[in-house]
Design brief:
The chain is mainly alpha-helical. 78% of the residues lie in helices and 0% in strands.
Length: 50
Amino acid sequence: MSEREILDYALECGLAAAADLLLLVGPDGFAGDYNMFSNLEQLLNEGVQV
């Protein structure tokens, strides 16, 4: 999954649901490097508006 797909999901279903989805996908299923994955995880868990 891409960062855009996760962010779109966050807009539809909420930040907590998107954070859970990101964890389910994991770094191996994420279309980006580990730093990008980690930054997105932090963004979602801190509750920053997307």
